[in-house]
Write a structure and sequence with these properties.
homodimer; 220 residues; alpha+beta; binds manganese (II) ion; DNA-binding
Chain lengths: 220, 220
Amino acid sequence: MQSFTEENYLKIIYHLSELTNTVQTNAIAEQIQTKPASVTDMIKKLADKGFVDYIKYQGVTLTERGRNAAINIVRKHRLWEVFLVDKLNFRWDEVHEVAEELEHIKSEALIERLDEFLGFPKSDPHGDPIPDKNGRFAKTQFIKLIDLKIGDGGTITGVSQHSSAFLKHLEKLGLTLGKQIQITDVTDFDGSVEILVENKQINISREVAKHILISTNGKN
Amino acid sequence: MQSFTEENYLKIIYHLSELTNTVQTNAIAEQIQTKPASVTDMIKKLADKGFVDYIKYQGVTLTERGRNAAINIVRKHRLWEVFLVDKLNFRWDEVHEVAEELEHIKSEALIERLDEFLGFPKSDPHGDPIPDKNGRFAKTQFIKLIDLKIGDGGTITGVSQHSSAFLKHLEKLGLTLGKQIQITDVTDFDGSVEILVENKQINISREVAKHILISTNGKN
DNA sequence: TAATTTTTTTAGATTTACCTAAAAATAAAA
DNA sequence: TTTTATTTTTAGGTAAATCTAAAAAAATTA
Ligand SMILES: [Mn+2]
Ligand SMILES: [Mn+2]
Ligand SMILES: [Mn+2]
Ligand SMILES: [Mn+2]
């Protein structure tokens, strides 16, 4: 069994692994809000326990064991987020912090019954896929809104930023999961994007457009 | 805010306070599965933080602040137990361990919405009262089954032992919350008790009879 | 009341997860 | 290819929660 802290490291390393093959000490330190020296200590411990492969000065990669542990935590995090939104009427911008705590509750039985209670959901309130009890999940194919061209359209199916501020902003703009959008223009001046959503024309900043994930349905 | 460990101490001290006015170091150590020396350390810390009044060699009592904190943890524990039984179909003997973890989740909003989701239950799966958000709850007036006399009857409304083994045993005997029972005889030999439940005559040991709580409805 | 037992506290260590400051390795720039 | 900058590690230390062994206080028994 892993400690609360070890679980947090594993989860962070897992997420960072999606960006770079081997994960660097400083990247972990930044995510986990700690100092690089502390990360080095913990990495050694995780390596001793067989959760990561570690080469000094080179960074870490998860072992099979570490990956499974990490995916299990992600599964729990996302299931709890669904619970909070679907059953307790939390908004999508309120759930992440609480799920950060709930994801560490140990009981196997709890999570399996929760999954069933929620109807075996396939994705969480932010569009992220929920691994099943064997750790399997659909590798979803998203494209960033910022990478679409004028005339392209699609459905909002995810976000790559989970901060409350960002999610509240999207909510206010009416840009929630499942909404159909189409790119109508890109401003030369600041790179902001004009989009059509529910017959309304709105303008969103480059920064916002970067973090909205679209599953496209054609037009190029 | 208190740590996970501090919360456990407060809760234990609260429960022990129902038995004795001032709570002894050894009693806490036994409950919390630790050594008296460790308890002394923690007690000093809780006293410094204003959660308990402490006189060396005499024991501790909760302050107003400590009592409120403890009741809040008890509230969370019992609400989670209701959730597990009512929503996730756990049996009453399976929930305690998981609730021991869930009771430490910090979010105020979570617990208020959970309470609402469960329909503001007044008691948990073991018949224990659930404090409301202001810490108020009905001081239930129970009598131990062992203290009833032949001919007395009542309703099972609680248990004073939460171990899985005990609860499973009651389940098997058909002695669950809400059942009507009546004492028909007390065996001289071993003090075991004959009771009538759902038109069946069964015999239970003194030990079992000690931990069943009855709200009586007459006959003496 | 004195002797003995029980309870509680102190003293000094240990483990986990941190930290700062300084050294070592690697990467980037000149 | 040096020099400089960045990244990472080591060394040594702190705070929280625990422990064992021994001392001190309180309660019990003789
Ligand atoms: Mn989240
Ligand atoms: Mn999410
Ligand atoms: Mn319980
Ligand atoms: Mn209970």
